[in-house]
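Figure caption, in words: inputs first, then the predicted bound structure.
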Amino acid sequence: MNCQKVIDSLSDDLDGALPWHRLATFWIHLRLCPGCRNYVASFSLTLALVRTTARDVTSDQPPEIPCKLVDAIQAARK
Ligand SMILES: [Zn+2]
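Bound structure (zinc ion present):
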């Protein structure tokens, strides 16, 4: 999998729509490619912020942080 395919797969991955074999190569590529890790981390963060802001503005509950977002951020910091 190359960088462009990772970026193309990103929205499918976040929707949980990627088949497992593509998901595996996606995450393997992310582990090996710092550029894509940074891209995914910023993309995920943006998406999480948009979802959090768009949802439950009146709710007192703290926003749920997606596991994939945490993983992507931790991976990008290594
Ligand atoms: Zn890459």
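Helices lie at 3-14, 20-32, 34-54, 67-77.
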